[in-house]
Amino acid sequence: MKKIEAIIKPFKLDDVKEALFEIGINGITVSEVKGHGRQQGHTELYRGAEYIVDFLPKIKIEIVVKEKDLDNVIEAIVKSAKTGKIGDGKIFVLPVEKTIRIRTGEEDEEAI
Prior knowledge:
Blueprint: E1 2-8, H1 13-22, E2 29-35, E3 42-46, E4 49-53, E5 56-65, H2 70-81, E6 89-95
Antiparallel strand pairs: 1-5, 1-6, 2-5, 3-4
């Protein structure tokens, strides 16, 4: 099993969610996060004053998948989240050693 963590632009969430649903992935966790990568934030003008915005709003999506589904999920996220502009985000893949469904006690792939 693998855990996918994807950091995307907030306005792409519905597109990503729809793309995942189309390939049979319906269990996701979504968090509103802030951060920056290479773009290092930006400056904004508000009522004549300039402000530095260091951390930009992003969405973090977390999904645990069977190893056989990994490539399809990554492809769906990339295709649906990509704008071609800086700040599109990143995808991280981590190993998952154990999964337990609390309600039933099911473990590992049965618990996904």
